[in-house]
């Protein structure tokens, strides 16, 4: 069974997708790429703050699916400039500070996202 996860605490998806998907038969929860947009629709002009929002959104999706950050086995992250890497990595390290086992992680530099103000996007794969 597939269970779409779209926490009420997050801004609605930008298109026809769910913020997360829990696949009970497989024991996997996948999040869509989360952008640094607050629930009120505002977007900070700081990469670190955007990354923090990304991780808060991922945590909300995981909670909605009955999981926590400790269930993450893989993170894929994207930034639009190398200079945003330290701020992203700081936010990632803070978000995973209480996780006894750190997930696999990939960070890719991309040319941009759907809106110019976005600097960071993060997606997660969790198991249960």
Quick description:
InterPro entries: RutC-like_sf, YjgF/YER057c/UK114. The protein is α+β, with helices and mostly antiparallel strands.
Please provide a written account of the structure.
- It contains 2 helices and 7 strands; from the N terminus they run E-E-E-E-H-E-H-E-E.
- Helix 1 runs parallel beside helix 2 (85-95).
- The chain is of the alpha+beta class and 128 residues long.
- The protein is globular.
- It starts with a strand and ends with a strand.
CATH class: Alpha Beta
> Gap between N and C termini, in Å?
14 Å
Nearest-angstrom radius of gyration? 14 Å
CATH superfamily: RutC-like
Percent range of helical residues: 10-25%
Say what oligomer this is. Answer: single chain
- Unreliable stretches (pLDDT < 50, length at least 5) are none
| Count of helical regions | 2
CATH third-level topology: 60s Ribosomal Protein L30, Chain: A
The total beta strand count reads: 7
Query: What structural class do the secondary elements suggest?
Result: alpha+beta
Task: Describe the largest sheet.
Answer: 7 strands, mixed
As for the number of domains, it is 1
Mean pLDDT: 95
Question: What's the architecture, going by CATH?
Answer: 2-Layer Sandwich
Which word captures the global form?
A: globular
Order of helices and strands: EEEEHEHEE
Content of β-strand: 25-35%
Protein name: Enamine deaminase RidA, house cleaning of reactive enamine intermediates, YjgF/YER057c/UK114 family
Pfam families: Ribonuc_L-PSP
Organism: Bosea robiniae
InterPro entries: RutC-like_sf, YjgF/YER057c/UK114
